[in-house]
Structures are given as structure tokens and as C-alpha cells.
Amino acid sequence: MKKRALAIVMAGLMAVSMSSVCAYAKDEEKEAKTEGFYIGLSNGYWGNTWRAQMVEDFENKAEEYKEEGIISDYMISNSNSDATEQLNQINAMIDSGVDAILIDAVSPTTIKSAVEKAKAKGILVVIANDPAAYEDTICVCGDNYTWQKIQAMWLMEQIEGKGDIVKITGVSGNAADTIREQANDDILAEYPDVNVLTSAPGNWSQTDAQSVMTTFLSSYDSIDAILEQDVMAEGVIKAYENAGKDIPVMTGDYTKSFFAKWAEMEDLNTIGVPYAPGNATVALEVAVRLLQGKEIDEANLVANPMDENLINTVMVAPPYVVTKEAQPDATWMEGLENTEAISLDEAMELLKDSADTAALDGYMSDEAVDKLFK
Amino acid sequence: MNKVKKLMSWNAFPALLLFVIFLGINGVMTGGLSVSFFRSFISTNAGAICVAIGVTATILVAGTDISLGSIVSLVNVVIVTAFEKGFSVPQAALLGLLTAVLCGMFNGFVVGIMRVNPLLATFATSIAFAGIALWILPYPGGYIDFTFGDWYLGNMFGIIPTPVVLIAILVLIWIFVMKLPVGLHIYALGKDVKKAYASGINVAALRFFVHTFAGLAAGVAGICISANICAGSPTVGSAMSMNSIAAAVIGGVSLNGGIGGIWSGIFGASFLSILISIVVSANLSSIVQSFIQGLILLIGVTVSIAASDKEIKTKIKRAIGGKR
């Protein structure tokens, strides 16, 4: 028994020492190649449909690239908001010899040591989906500003620039919420006849939004429109249903269950703009081109939302804008090259095989991404 | 041969064995264990190891401490905020350490002197400490001078990586305490509170001491993590409390107290950390990653408990038909 255990320890130690020897052989072949890249995705949160879709999108695109031979393989790691775990995962990827790592960080500030280590080894680091500011990296993230701006512009047009509205915001202090509310404020500033009765955070939660809306309904007799963000729309609808009142024009959500509800409700006037899980896939498309030695046209880079002095960010506009009937010529569609205006029926068609909680999803085509480059 | 026997019957041995085996597997999978692998491994996980050391001390006296992760977060935001307010890096780090020790003393006061159940007391303080961290720094941000990171990722005394030195300081303090009569008292208290009390051991003071030590360990962990990320995040330690208790148990510490030692925490935490690397290196589909990680963990815990339980050991031996 003693001997057996000792033998296991010895075997382990031998494996360690042997593998240390062959560690040196690897680092040499780092020349400019155009295909056969090895790419890793480190995802910092794992536990909702949205993130599952994000990873699935990435896998689909990576499989496509793999078949074309552009990448040789890819690896994915998920962490549940555990910063140390994510650092371990990124380190493991670096040691596996990846050419590029895409990181959706647990928290924008916690990945410094891993980013530094990757850069020291000549590995490309692309910050994906959620912004984080690190020198010599590229950040590809969702364009919260444009996303909210489209919805605010649409709402203003529906009420013809006048009336009493209420606002339900996200999680106070969250970077995405700050940017989105900035977009709302910028648009509202153009409409002096619109009166914001009140505003309260709904924490991107249906139940919170429902209780906020119920309070609003008991405090104000007439509400002409509701400006809310993201997944809270169904909570707002429930509050109205419980109160037995007619729902005024409101901004909406982009999940299948919301679209289904919308399709059932003849009178509902709303809009759905997806904050697409495909953002991480765009990061992959960008990473591959950077590895091939292409350069991003500076005109397409904007300041990082986390550090305004760092101009390294590609903002990904929403893939779709869903209205009852498609309105590609509307004012809110101006200047959005990669955004498609579609009707509610088309959105339902796109989502027909998805789960109820799935988001309407999409990402930029290879041709569209090519245009970002010189 | 006597030494081997001693090693084998050591509480932390199964965890050490698991760690070495998995280190080997990881090496084979990634095509080699480089020096840089060990360096990044130790610098990333020194925090987790320190917290495991701290929680081990509290479990040894049949208590526990689930507030250590929150203390780590608090230390991180204190260091970042102090640095931004104009303190130098060493001053900020010491301030962070002091904060952690005060938090530990507060835990010790509530558990030892007010005699509140340690689980309840530290559950409450964990929420309070995390709340203070969020209050000081509501969202991730801030920065610490990169000299802090360079110091941490570099060497001390020429060749020893700084994180190793930091862990060694905790280990040395603990070994020193174990040489004193207090060391024996800690184990006595863990084995049986009433008998320990009846024998004239100062239970309140001992509990106060272990929680203060745990606070110190969390403080060192906070310094490690802050130096590693060179930025502030009010939730950076949130997952560490539970992980550290799991690490201690895998390392052979009995939750009933009195069994195990500081090395249990160290090797338990190292094994947990290498496990994460392995699951990533194996390049499994993301859907099964958590499952595999949990499965290996379950096997690891079962093996380490079976190995430390003599009765199960003999049963297994009989089943396999091994000669005695």
C-alpha cells in the first residue's frame, strides 16, 4: 500500500519533470501566418440564457472558421463571477499556446495580470462584449448608446414630441446603465415639450419593474409613454394588466416571450431592439483579422467606455430594429449600416426554433467586419 | 521508511497527492510545465491559499469563518482608495492589512466574547464587510501604481517569488504558535469545547485569536489579489469564502474541529486551483465543464475522506483483497 502510493507520487513527479523538458520546444514558431490560429474565449459570467447564447454563437462561428481552416481549434472557459477562477482559466489558455484570447471579464478591472502575461507572450488580447480598458488591446463591445438612442428616438416620434412620460432605468451605477441613460437624456433634451414625470431604477428585473410601474400608476393619472430599457417590458405590461388600464406607447424588450406577447396584443405599440449576444462573435471575427495582420481603420475606433483616453473600441450596433411593420426609412435608422429594420412577424420567424427566454440575436457578417479594416 | 509512513498518515497527504497528480496531468495536456506556469499559478492563487490558511485556523477550533472573502474585497478597495487619496503603495497595503486584522478582531469579539455561533456571526459580518466595500468603491475601477504589481510578480531575496514569501510569513506565524502551549490548546478546543473549558483553557481568548489570525490571512490575501490586478473591484473576493472552506476540507481538515493543519488548507486550495486549469486545458465543451469540474471535486473529496478514515480504509482493502 505504502509502495503503491509512493509509486503514484513518483509517477506524478516524473510526468511533471518530463513535461517541463518539452516546454521549451513550443515558443519558437510565432511567425505571421494567415490561418490555423488557436483561439480562446474566457467568459466571466455563466448563468443566464443571454450568456449561453453568446457562447453558442461563438462556437458556431468558430466551427465555421475551423472548417475553412482559418482557425485550427478554439477553447472556451466559463466562470461564475469568480475573478480568481477567471485568471486561472486565462493562464491555462496562455499555457495551452493560444494565438488570441477573447475576454469577457468578471469585472473590468480584475484581469490585468493575465492581460500583461498574454501580451508578454505575444498573444493578442481582445476584450469582448463588456468593455474593459487595457493598453495594446482591442475592445469589441455592444453599443449601449446607439441601442438606447434608437428606442428613445422612436418613442419621441410616437408621441410627436410632447406629453408626460415615465422612465424606468437599469441598475444605478452600472456602466451600461449610465451610458444608456446618457442616450436617453441626449434625445430628451431635443424635445422641450416632453415632461418626464418621474424616473426609478427597475434593476433590469421584471418583478422590480412591475412594482415600480404599479407605484407610478397609483401616483399619476395620465402617463402618455413609458421609456424603459431591456428585459423589464413584460413587468410593465403586467403592472398595467393588474391595474386594468390600457397600456400607452412604450419601449420594449427583445426576447422571444416578449415578441410572442406583443404579437398577441393587437393594440400594443412598442419596439424591440436586441442587445445581441452575437457581440462576442464579432470579437472573434475581428480577432481573426488582426491575427492575419490586417489593421483596423482608425475611423472605426472610438474611445473605450472605461477610459476615454484609450481609443481602441469597436462598437457593435444592434443587428435588428423590430417594429410592427418594418420601417427601414425611419429617422432612427439613419447612419446604421449594419442594422436591419424588420417587422414583428419576421422577428418571430427568426426566433421560431429558440427557447422562450432566448434573445433575438445576430452578428455582423464577415463582409461587414471586413469594412472595419483598412 | 519511518518518514514515509509519517507522510502517508499525514492529514494533508491525500490533497498533496491529488495536487501532484493533477499538476502532472496538466503538464502533459499543455505540453509542458514551464517556469512561467508556476509563477502565474502561484501569483494568481496565493490569495486563495492565504484565505484557506485563515479558514483552516478557525475550523480547527470547531468554528468557521465565512466572512474572509468579504474581508478580501474590503482590503482591495481600501488599498485602492488609500492609494488614490495620496498614500504610498506600502502605506496603502499596510492600511489594508490593518483593516483586515480589525475585521478579524471584530469577528473574534463577536464569536469569542459575545459567544455567537461562528457561522451566524461571520455570515452577518460577511454581509456587513461586503457592504462597506461596496460603499467605499461602488463600482470596479481605480488603480494602484504598477510598481505594486512588479513587486508582487517579482522575487524577494533574489530568488523566491514574492507570493511565496507572503504565504511563508503566515505559515511561520502559525508554526510559531503551534510550538507554544496555545497550539495544543487550539486542538484541545477543537476536539471538545467542554473538556477544554473544564481544563482551564481560555476559550474566549483562543477564539478571538484564531479569528484575528484568519483576518490577518485574509489581509495578506487581499494584498496578493490587489497587487495581481492593480485595480479595485468591490466583489473580487466574493467567491473565496466558500471555496476556502471546501479547500480546507479537501485538505483533510475535519469540520468537527481538532483534525488537520495549516498544510491542509494550502494543498487543498492548490488542488482546487489546478483543477480549474485542467478543465480549461482539456478543452471540453462549455456545457460539460462545470459538470466535470464538480465530478473531479467529488471524487477528490471522497478519496481524501476515505484515505483519512481508518475504518473505510480497511474495508476497501478487504474488498480489493489486498494483503495486510
From TrEMBL, chain B:
Its main location: membrane. It is a multi-pass membrane protein. This is Autoinducer 2 import system permease protein LsrD. The chain crosses the membrane at residues 89-112, 119-137, 157-177, 204-229, 235-255, 262-284, 290-308. InterPro entries: ABC_transp_permease. It is found in: Cell membrane. Keywords: Cell inner membrane, Cell membrane, Membrane, Transmembrane, Transmembrane helix, Transport. PANTHER family: ABC TRANSPORTER PERMEASE PROTEIN YPHD-RELATED-RELATED, AUTOINDUCER 2 IMPORT SYSTEM PERMEASE PROTEIN LSRD. The keyword Metal-binding does not apply.
